[in-house]
Amino acid sequence: MIGAAMGEAGTVGIGRVTLSRRERLVMVEPRGAGMVAIILRSSEEVRMPSFATAHREADADMIAVAAMIMKRRIGHFDPTTFRDRYQEALRELIEAKMKGLPVRPKEISKPPPVVDLMAALKRSLAQETGAAAKPKRKAGVDHRQTSLLLPVSGKKRTEKSRPAAEPAAQRRKKA
Fold first, then answer.
1. Is the pTM of this model over 0.70?
2. Closest of 30, 32, 34 to residue 12, by C-alpha
3. Bridge-partner residues for 19, per DSSP?
4. Count of beta carbons in the 10 Å neighbourhood of residue 6
5. Tens digit of pLDDT for each residue in 25-50?
6. Domain membership flag for residue 37
7. Would residue 89 count as lying in a domain?
8. pLDDT of res. 61
9. Number of domains present in the structure of the chain
10. What is the DSSP letter of 139?
11. Which residue intervals of the chain are DSSP H helices?
C-alpha cells in the first residue's frame, strides 16, 4: 500500500540501514509490486530488481491512508545533515584510547522474550470454544473397550516367563 501511494505521489523515502556493522544511507522507492532499497553510493553498485507482478489490485482506501501518512512526513532531503554515526563512534573510541581513558562497552538492552505463537493460538482457541484439555491417562490402566475383546483362556505368556536357553525351534515344537 505504501509503495502504491509513493508511486502515485512520485516520491521516494530516505533512511538508514545497518549492513555488516556499518550504517548506510538508503533510498526506498516503489518498483512494480514491491519496493527497493538502494544504498546511496556509486552508480555501478545499483542493479535492476526483478519482482513478480501483483496478482490483485491494491485497495484504494489503503492507498489513500498511506498517502495521508506520507503527506504528514514529507520534507526535503539535505545530505549535509546526514551524520555517519559509526564513523563518529569509532573516532571517539580511538581518541579515548589515545588519551589513555578507560573504554567501557555500551550496555545492550535485553531483548523481550519470544512469544510462542502456536501455544498462544491454542490457548486462545481453548478459551473461545470452552474446550478443556484432555485428562492424562494413568499408567498401567487398561483403557481398551472390554466388550470388544475376545475371551482367551490361560495365562498370558511373556518373554520373562520363557526360559532364556530355549531355542525358537523347540518352542514351536512344544506349542
1. no
2. 30
3. 22
4. 20
5. 899 999 888 899 988 865 555 677 77
6. yes
7. yes
8. 85
9. 1
10. T
11. 2-9, 60-73, 85-99, 117-129, 168-174
- The whole domain housing 83 covers 2-42+56-99
The stretches of 39-150 forming alpha helices (DSSP H) are 60-73, 85-99, 117-129
Does any domain span residue 60? yes
Buried b (16+ CB within 10 A) or exposed e, 9-23: eeeebeeeeeeeeeb
Burial class of residue 30 in the structure, from the number of CB atoms within 10 Å of its CB (0-12 exposed, 13-18 middle, 19+ buried): buried
Residue at grid coordinates 490361560: 154
Instruction: For the chain, give percent helix, strand, coil, nearest 5.
Output: 40, 15, 50
Q: Report if residue 130 sits inside a domain.
A: no
Amino acid, res. 15: G
The amino acid at residue 88 is: E
Show the cell assigned to 172.
Answer: 514351536
In the chain, the largest separation of any two C-alpha atoms, in whole Å, equals 99
Looking up cell 512494480 gives 32
Sheet (strand 13-19) strand order: 13-19, 22-31, 34-39
Dist CA 130 CA 118 (whole Å): 18
